[in-house]
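Question:
Write out your own:
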Amino acid sequence: MRYSIWLKGWCLALFIVAFAGINFGQSPTPSPSPTPHRDLSFAKRLIRDQKAIWTSPFHIDRDDLKVGVPIAIATGALIATDRHTTDAIDRFGTLPAASRDVSRFGTGYSTAGIAGAFYIAGWASHNEHARRTGELAAEAMIDTLVVTDVLKVTFRRQRPFVSDRGLFFKGGSSFPSGHASNAWATATVIAYQYKNHPLIKYGAFAAAALISMSRFSGRNHFLSDVVVGSAIGFGIGRYVYMHQ
């Protein structure tokens, strides 16, 4: 049984390894700068993004594996220990109620509202940077929604409140966490767009981390669901910023 769990973990982690190919392998610098593609329409950028994401397994190189393999190992380990980490969080009975309130900020409605607020505020004040931030956040959010939903439909993992075993291919929608991926995609765009403003940058990342962990502490997701969702969101947000 344990070998089966680890095998599933490795299979699920392959997407993360592949996805590293469109992120970390393309820019060796720790503080990436965007490559302008502003001649593309919003719809064309979405098509370009999805093509890059889903064809990334065909472009993995040695540098990508340096990042992807450790992530794959960590993902497999998390999936193998999900039952234990979920049992541990159950000892804190007051967390689920508070977590539900926090996790609401990771919904598509909330992140769409944030993106819209940046766009409208930028348009109204003639602030191109803020307007662009809202547009990029919306792009990252839509990309993330597509990827996350495809993975949910593919892996169909049970949620913790259904079964603490977290079985895959059982009609569930736990893997990966959509709230976590959504929050991190939006936060990453904002953080990189305002990387010279520490309060905004670290505040965005802190909010994404808090929302992500609330999905685990509220028993909506297993820890591996949250970690993988966060990684996907960060990767997509970074990619969108880099290729704006």
About this structure: The chain has ten helices and no strands.
